Each structure stands twice: as C-alpha cells, then as structure tokens.
Amino acid sequence: MANALDSTAVMAENLRDMGLCDEDTEKCLEMLKEKRCCELERFLGDYRKTLLENVHKYNERIDCLDYLTYKMKNGGI
Fold it and tell me: Domain range spanning residue 29?
C-alpha cells in the first residue's frame, strides 16, 4: 500500500489498480507531473470506454452461457 502522504505513489497505485500496465501508468504520471490534465483526462476517458466495452462483451458471453444452460436444463439440447 502506498504512503498516503506521497500523492504520486497513491496515484500510481490507483492507476495500477485500474488495470493499467506499467508503461501507461508512467505515461499518466508524466502527464500529471507536467500538468497536462486535459490530455490525462482524455486518456483516462478512453481507457474507461475500453473497460466498459469489455464489460459489455463479457456480459453478452454470460448471456449466451446462461441461455445454453437454460436450454440444456429444459431439454432443448
């Protein structure tokens, strides 16, 4: 766990917890350090969209799995 007094370490830990790779984490920290907040916000927004797209993709897969399971239980297959 990062020292709560070290804001850079806290931010780095949060970025890693979001699933960013080390390279992207470093890019984000650099943008933050250089006060390129608009660029960082765009990057994080794009990353959020990617995560949400993955949620939807996996939700569709779960729906297909549930349908198959339902059909199997009810003699449809």
Answer: 7-73
Give domain status of residue 2, yes or no: no
Dist. CA 15–CA 51, nearest whole Å: 13
Residues 6+ apart with CB under 8 A from 77: 68, 71
What tens-digit pLDDT sequence spans the chain (77 residues)?
566 568 999 999 999 999 999 999 999 999 999 999 999 999 999 999 999 999 999 999 999 999 999 999 998 77
Long-range contacts of 49-57 (CB under 8 A, 24+ apart): 51/18, 51/19
- Looking at the domain assignment, is residue 54 inside a domain? yes
| Both tokens assigned to 64 | 């297909």
pTM confidence score: 0.78
